[in-house]
Write a structure and sequence with these properties.
This protein has 312 residues and is mainly alpha-helical. It has 11 helices and 3 strands; from the N terminus they run βαααβαααβααααα. It has helices at residues 23-50, 57-74, 77-86, 93-126, 131-134, 137-162, 180-184, 192-225, 230-258, 270-291, 294-311, and strands at 10-13, 90-92, 172-173.
Length: 312
């Protein structure tokens, strides 16, 4: 039980402060990753918006996913860069709450959007004759809107719940951004009930979409295996292989980080895991979708050719 009755008005993000001699190197590394992430995902947004060949529901969702990744990484990395450059690691309580809300908002929205993308692949492969009806433009808008609404509710619910708890010191967060588990460790008193509520809510928002994705791909694989020709099976699987890679990367880290008790939080290793899903994964998505998707590569070539023709 905490005996200090003072109210915490600001936090200190202590992530990577122990690597004093590497601050410049870390700044250069994270700045490079951030710029490449924004440029790569922005390129996909521009290509899908400008190229008439990328008008299917799959690319409608891909454009939203890329926009989400830009927001997702922009919530954490610019502030991390500021801390590495200036050494000033303080963040006001309101700023910490805002960062947590935005991070959860983008993350939960991506959870739901990946499920919508899996449904798109299911409809395209298992119900090709009904695909235009099942994934009409109106349905795509409804699925995307539902994902955004779900993300907003999750972000607002978790953030308002955690910051309604009492913080009386200390105020040093062993992380590089305002993450749920390390902040929960700073709450005064017994938080076992709060912890259980957070884990159950996280399990609901993570495992429900993940279950829908597994169900969709179970049906997809069953359909693919019934295709008589090897070429047909390979072509059908190639249309969803990129999405499978992204789902594996995103959900494996999300499940490990959020669906576990705070007692298992390790301030030495968990920030490194958070780096993977908060910083590294967003830069992998445009690489995965551009290298493994012939339509995106073709659209990029057409765009480059148009730019060259315009210069002549």
């Amino acid at each position: 039980m905490c005996t200090n009755t003072s109210v915490v008005t600001e936090f200190i993000l202590a992530g990577f402060s122990h690597l004093a001699s590497l601050q410049g190197l870390l700044f250069s590394l994270f700045l490079t990753i951030y710029l490449l992430t924004v440029a790569g995902n922005l390129l996909i947004v521009v290509l899908v918006s400008a190229d008439s060949a990328l008008r299917s529901p799959m690319y409608f969702f891909l454009r939203i996913l890329s926009a989400l990744e830009i927001g997702y990484t922009s919530v954490t990395v610019p502030l991390l860069l500021h801390h590495l450059l200036t050494g000033q690691r303080h963040i006001p309580r309101s700023g910490c709450a805002l960062q947590m809300f935005l991070f959860l908002f983008f993350g939960a929205t991506e959870c739901c959007l990946l499920a919508a993308m899996a449904y798109d692949r299911y409809a395209a492969i298992c119900k090709p004759l009904h695909y235009p009806l099942l994934l009409s433009h109106r349905m795509c808008l409804q699925l995307a809107g539902s994902a955004w609404a779900c993300g907003a509710m999750v972000g607002l619910g978790h953030t308002s719940f955690i910051f309604s708890l009492h913080f009386c010191g200390p105020n040093a967060i062993p992380h590089f951004f305002c993450e749920i588990q390390p902040i929960l460790q700073l709450v005064c008193g017994d938080t076992s009930l709060n912890e259980l509520q957070i884990i159950l809510a996280a399990a609901l928002i993570i495992l429900c979409p993940f279950g829908l994705i597994l169900g969709s791909y179970g049906r997809i694989l069953a359909t693919i295996f019934r295709i008589p020709s090897a070429v047909g099976r390979r072509k059908a699987f190639s249309t969803c292989s990129s999405h499978l890679v992204v789902v594996s990367l995103f959900y494996s880290t999300a499940i490990f980080i959020y669906i576990r008790p705070k007692a298992s939080y390790d301030p030495a290793t968990d920030p490194l895991l958070s780096l993977f899903y908060a910083v590294v994964t967003p830069i992998l998505n445009p690489i995965i979708y551009s290298l493994r998707n012939t339509d995106v590569k073709a659209a990029l070539k057409r765009t480059i050719q148009k730019m060259k023709s315009a210069e002549i």
